[in-house]
Each structure stands twice: as structure tokens, then as C-alpha cells.
Amino acid sequence: MEFLLEQLANWKFYLIGAYPKGQLTGLTLNIVLAVLSIIIGLFFGILFGLGRTSCRRYLRHPCGLYVDVIRSTPLLLIIFWFYFFLPVVGAKMPLFWCAVISLSVYASAYQAEIVRAGILAVPMGQMEAALSTGMTRYQAVKLIILPQAFKKMLPSFVSFFNSLFKSTSIVYIVGIIDLTRTGVIISQRQPNRIYAAYFCMALGFWISCYMLSLASQILEKKLGILDYESYKPEICREDLVLLPLPKTVKRFLITQK
Amino acid sequence: MPFREPYLGWLITGVKLTFLIAAVTSILSLIVGTILAIMRSSRFKFLNIPAKVYVEIVRNIPGLFWLLFFYFVFPQILPFGLTDTLNRYTYYSVIAGILGLTVDNSAYVSDIVRTGLLSVPRGHIEAAVSTGLNRFQQIRYVILPVAFRTILPPLGTRMIHNFKNSSLCMAIAAPELTWATQQVESITFRGLEVTFLATVFYIGISLTLAVIMIRLERWLKIDVTSITQMRT
Question: In chain B, is it the N or the C terminus that has fewer CB atoms within a 10 Å radius of its CB?
């Protein structure tokens, strides 16, 4: 018990590390990573989500392919891609920005799914009404469809942010000193305090994620539920058209009852 | 020549272990998750509250933490003799990976199953009671078959997610595919090629699983029209 109090006494190490003098580490790094990548991912997610619902085939299919490929690759491998690929292309980047880029690529695919679900949840008549009042398609999407869709997407955005925040702990593997790495370092330096170190690590994640899940519950109660995970299986039937398969196989897969 | 003898062998062992970890964790977490969901929807507090606490704790802590926990901390909780035998066992990391992933996944599965249980119409349960089934029989023969059919899509998504999460076992040096690719990279410096192979493998298997889930859904669907036609 006194070990635990001792660990809690150096809370600064878990939260910000040696920030003002040295590197930013600990829980704050996780939060910074998650916030940066969700903002960048939101921008691209809206683009890809709009592309997926577009009626133009040359927009819809590449966006669908991107989303499916990213969604079926583990986050760890996406991080490795940027970790190995950026030096090959010639862009030398600090590890932190590597992590931000790969996390935002990951987030953009999932958020494109959320945006698509939100747009499809807006009734078809809204678009028709907007077009019949003389708006252009761009105006209709910007002024009519997206505001309504955002209201429906907000709870799933928050719950996705929760899962993204938990996913940021994966950067532990490429050697960024986030909260997980901090806890492991402390537990390795002082093996007799291993329980306390792991407990503090779990506590940091638990408190921040619990706050987020409470927020998403409140939002869900206020705005109604749209679960981005249950909305669509990993790949839907019309996406199968994209796969490079022979036509007979496709027909076998896509047969309607 | 990036893939001379030992490297391809490592990759194949990695693929085997990935499949093993994914399959075992999926099955275990399905069992644990279903039990947790039934406990959570029970009216007895001594069943209800522990399951709720478990789910609340596990859902709000990243999966990587559980893997590290079962690899580094869990052997120290056990009595010393058991720890010794465990550490002498070469593949303890695989066992730790399976335990950690199961703990992480079972909370999510229990959440999904619980929504399925809640979606079973009240009339079905009343009908089951009135035909004289006891509580266990009601769950086994009436509630679960209906519930599992409704939750099949999100459950499939979760299992695919679990399959992808099995790559995290690399953090505790379980020799599965991602770990093998890193091993090859560290010796031959051909990270790109090996990572490409691993990515293609993961994408292929995820898409295949997705297609299987779609087929399974259609196969398991209860054809309501044929039942009503039979009655008339």
C-alpha cells in the first residue's frame, strides 16, 4: 500500500514526464496523439465518407477500397508502414509525427465509415428537397446534409475517440514513451514496485477512458444511438465488386435471394 | 534473396501461431462473454454487480495493458513453484497473449451479447415459461438462438477485430506473424517486403472472414415466411 502511495506521489512522471525541460511523455502524450490524429483523421474521414456516398463511380470505388484496406489492416502494421516507408521515400521524420500520421490514417478510415453511416441516416427526401429549391449539390451537402448527419454522428465519434485513445497505447511498440512505456520503464527499474507501477498505468487509462465513455453515454441519451461498429459488417456486399476476382466467383458471392 | 531457408519458415510458423491465437481467443472470449452477458442480465445482485464491474474495468483499459499484465505481472501473483514452471516453458508468451486478448475481447463480446439478449421479444420468453421450460432451458433453447442470430454482424466484426489485435502479441514476443516479420527485418534489413507480405496476409484473411460472416448470416437466417406457410 505504501508503495502505491509512493508511486502516486510521483504523479508528474506518469502525467507529463520531464516536460518543461525534456520530452513530453506519459498520459499527456497519449492525449496529444489521440487529439491530433482524430482532428486530422476527421478532415480526411469527411472527404472519404463523402466520396463513399458519391454517385460517381470513379470517386466511390477508390474511397471504398481505401477504407476497406485500412480497416482490415492491424494498426500495428500501419504504424510499421510509416516507420519503414517514410525513410525510404526520403522523408525523415521524428517518431512522434510518424505515429501521428499512421494514427490519423487509421482514424480517417473508421471515421469515413461513421460519416457514411451518418449521411445514409439522413432521409433521402432532404437532398431532393434541397435540390428542388435550387441549391447546387455542393450547397445541399454543406448546408443541409452534413449538419444533420453530424448531429447523428456525434455519439459514435466520441466512442470512436475512446477506442482511438486506447489504441494510442500501441505506439509503445515502436518506442515512443507514452503512459504504457512509462509504466513498463518504472516497473523494470524497480522490480519490487511492479504492482504499483502497473496499477498506476491502468488507473491513468481507466480514468480518462471512463470519462469519455460517460460523455458518450450522455450524448447517446440526448441524440440517439448510431453504433458505427454494428452499422455494417467489415465489408458489405456491394464492396465485393471491387475485389479482383473472376466474375463467376463474384456472382456466387453476390447472389441475391 | 530475401527469403532463403530460415525466414520463410519463421513466417509460416508465425502464420500458424496467428491463426492459433485468433481462434482460441475468439472461442474463449465468446464463452466468457456469453456467461458475463447472462450474469449481467440476471436479477441477482451477486451475479449482476461483479460482471458489471469486470466489463467496466476491462473496457476502459487498452488491450496492450492486459497483454503486458499477463506477461510481466501475472506470473508474480502465482505461487513460486508455478511461476518457475511457467517461465521454463518456452511459449509462455503465447499463453499470456491468449489470456490477455481473451480478457480484453470478452468484455466487448459480453456487451454485444447483452444487446442481443435485450432484443429478444418478451413474448418468446413468456411462451417458453408457459411451455414449462426451466430457467436454464429457456436460456439455452429460446433466448440464445434468437439472440445470436440478431448479433451475428457486430459479433463477426468484433472477431475480425480480435484477429487483427492478435498482432499486438508481438509486444510480449509471442512468435506470431508480426513478430516474425520484425525478426526477419532485424536480420536482413528488408522491412518493406516483409511488412508488405504481412499486410497482404492480414487483409486477405480479414476479407475472407468478412465474406464467411456474410454467408453465415444468410445461412442462419430463420425464414419466417416458410414457417407461417407451414402453419396454414
Answer: C
